[in-house]
TrEMBL record:
This is Glycosyl transferase family 90-domain-containing protein. Residues 322-608 form the Glycosyl transferase CAP10 domain. It comes from Lentinula lateritia. Keywords: Transferase. Transmembrane segments: none annotated. PANTHER family: BETA-1,2-XYLOSYLTRANSFERASE 1, KDEL LYS-ASP-GLU-LEU CONTAINING - RELATED. Signal peptide: none annotated. One of its GO terms (molecular function) is transferase activity. InterPro entries: CAP10, O-Glucosyltr/Glycosyltrsf_90.
Amino acid sequence: MPQITSRSRRYSQLLVGGFISWIVLTRLPSLFLGPFSYVDIANTATECNTDARADRNSEDDGWSEQKTSLLEREKKAKGQHTYRPDGLLEVNPKGPHPIFELMDRAEKEWNDKLRKASTSLDEAIVEYRRRYRRNPPKGFDKWWEYVQKHNVQLPDEYDQIYHDMEPFWGLKPSYLLELQAERESKLDTYTIGKNADGKLDILKTSSQRGSYAQLISIATKVLDVLRDVEDELPSFRATFTPHDVPNLMTDYVVKSKLLEAARTDSHIGKAQIPSVHRLGWLSACDPESPARQIDFNLDGPSPPKPKKSFIYDHLLTMNPCLHPDLFWVHGQFLSHDTGPNTCPTMIPEFSSCSTSLHHNIRFPTPYGWVEDILPRSDDPDFADKTDERLLWRGTNTGIHHSPRTRWQSSHRNTLVRTVNEVNGTLDFLVSPNLGYEDQPVDNPKTARRARLNPAMMDAAFVREPSQCDEPTCSQMKQIYEYKDMQSMKDAGNYKYVLDMDGNGWSGRFKRLMTSNSLVFKTTIYPEWFVDRVAPWVHYIPVQVDLSDLYDSLIFFRGDSNGEGAHEELARQIALQGREWSKKYWRREDIIAYSYRLFLEYARIMSLDREAMTYQGEGEIHFDRWKKDEDIMQDPPLH
C-alpha cells in the first residue's frame, strides 16, 4: 500500500492559528511580565532547583506537583484532548473536533509501520530478536521465502502470536504435552496435525451425538488453510474447539507466574502452578486494575465513563479489566453473570476467537472470507451510494434470551433498541463545516431521537426471534420489528455500515471491508490481524456501549440535515479499507499467519525447544530502532 499523504493543506489554517495563539499565550507575557510569567517560572524552577534538590526534597516535590498541575491546566486551556492509558481519548470541549487528530495520528503510525517493515531475512531475524528476546522458530527461513514469494505485507507484525504463545513458554514441555493429550478427549473438540505419513490430517474427534459431520466440516476447512505449506510444517498435534466463543478462562496469578518463568528462561511443572482464585471474570484481572476496584453488581449501574470519548487504541478498549463497563453491555460476559471459574492452568487449545480474559490460541478462521464482492455492480463507489443511513442487519445472537438472563442489556439488543428509539433526546458533538476545522468542538448539542434516528439509522433483527425461550420469544416480537434479510445489491447502496459481534467474533467483517462503504466496528475480540490494520485509517472503531457512535457518524455524514458532513474523508477511509482488505487479508495472508503460528506452536510443544529453534545467523543492525525502548513488552495483565 502506498503511504497515505497527510492533509496538510486542510490544516494550514489550524497550524497558523495555533502558532499565533502560542505566541500570544506564552511569548508575549514573558516580554511584559518578566520573570513572573508562568513559562519563565517553570523554566527557572527546573534550572535553579537542581543543586538544592538534595537539601529540599519536600519543597521540590511540592513544586513538581504544582508545576505538573499548571502544565495540565495549560494543556486544557489550549484545548488539548486527553489520551487516557485505557485506549480512550477524552474530549476537551476547547479543542477542535478530535476525529481530525485521531485520523492524522493513525495515518502517521500506519506509515511508520510500513516504513520500518523488514525487507530481507536478516532484517526479519534481527527484528524478531529485538521484539521477542529469542531466536525465531526452526523453519523461519522457509516461512520468509513464502512471505516473499506471495508478497505478504508487514512481515514483522505478528505480535498477536507472541501474546498468545508466550505464557506457554513458562510451562514444562512434558506438562504441556500432557495437557494437550487430555484435551483431545474433551467433548466437542477436534485435533489436527501430521499423521504417520507426514501429511496433514484430522487425527481425532470427540463429538456429541449428531455433531460429528459438523466437526469434520470445520476441521477440513482449517486443514485447507494449511495445505499449501503442508510439506514445510513440522510434526504437531493441535486441538480446536469448534464453538464460536472462547472457553478457557485465565487466572491472573497463574498467567503472571508463567510469564515470569518465560522471561527468565525457566519452566514450571504441574506441582508449581499457583492456586487459582474464584472471582469469576475478575480472576483474570490485575488486583490493581480498574475492574478490581469496582462494586461488581450487574443489577446496579455500570461504572461511570467520560462524558465524551473516542477510541485511539482499539485493542486496549477491548479489555474489560481496563473497561469494566463491558461486563454490563456485552453478551459474552452477561451470559455468565459474574463469570465462570478459571482453568487451574493454561491449556493449549485453539479457537476462532478469544478475549483478554481467555487464553485460547487464535486461529485465522476462513469463515466468511471473500476475495471480492461480485458482481461489482452490487457495490457502487462510495460517492454513488444513495442511502446515507448506517446499516446493520443480523439475528439476535450474542446471548440466550430467557427470563433468567440479562438479554436486554446485551450488545445486539442494545443496538437495535437504541437506534430505533423515538422518545427522548441524545447528546452529540457538532461536526464543523469545511474551513472551520480549528474551531473548538464545544459542549455536546441535544437533539430529539425522533429527528435523528429515522434519518440516520437503519438497524434491525431479521427473520424470527432465535436463541430464546418462551415467554421471552413472544416478548421480543413485541419489542422489535423483525425484517427480511437484504440482498447484497440492496445492502451495497448504503454508504455506512456497522460490524458487531454475535455470539463470538463477527464473520462478516471481511466482506464489509471489501466493499466501498465506510465500516464502523465494535468488538471485544482481538483478531489475528489486529497488528496489521489501523483504526481511523481503514475503519472507524466504536465503543461497545455505542457512546461514540452518533458522534462519529455525524462527523462523516453530517447531522439529520447533512450539516457538518465530511464525506470526502469518509470516502477516503472506505477506499483505504477496501484496499487493505484486498492487499492484507488475502488467502496468502491467512496462510502466512497460520504457517508462522504452527512453527511457534510446534516449538513450544517440543521436548527439545532448542532443536526447534532457527539456527541461522542474521546480521545485527540496531540503528533503525532504539535498543531498549522498543523491546516487546509482555502482554498487559490488567
